[in-house]
Amino acid sequence: MSDETLARYRQSIDNIDMALVCLLAERFKVTQAVGRHKAEAGLPPADPGREEAQIARLRALARDADLDPEFSEKFLRFIIEEVIRHHEQLRG
């Protein structure tokens, strides 16, 4: 693999990483709004039923995209844990 080929691959990876960060930032803006709503409405920070449904949905999407469902579940669980932590902070 030439240095030029490697540089193109790395540029593609960098572009994808940038898109992932932007998508995560947008997702967390929405989940922060959800957290504020939950706090104002007196709703619990976590919704285990919703979380499990989302994990099942993401695992199916991962399989369809030829991505390891175990990896996708670990990734989503990490995000969910962070969202719940934020929601708990909003409750005070």
UniProtKB/TrEMBL annotation:
Gene Ontology MF terms: chorismate mutase activity
Sorted UniProt keywords: Isomerase
Record GO biological process: chorismate metabolic process; salicylic acid biosynthetic process
SUPFAM superfamilies with a match to the protein in the record: Chorismate mutase II
Record-annotated Chorismate mutase domain positions: 1-91
Keyword Isomerase: yes
PROSITE patterns membership: CHORISMATE_MUT_2 (PS51168)
The keyword Isomerase belongs to this UniProt entry's keyword annotation: yes
InterPro entries with a match to the protein in the record: Chorismate_II_sf, Chorismate_mutase-related, CM_bact, CM_dom_sf, CM_II_prokaryot
EC number: 5.4.99.5
Name by which UniProt lists this protein: chorismate mutase
Organism per entry: Sphingomonas baiyangensis
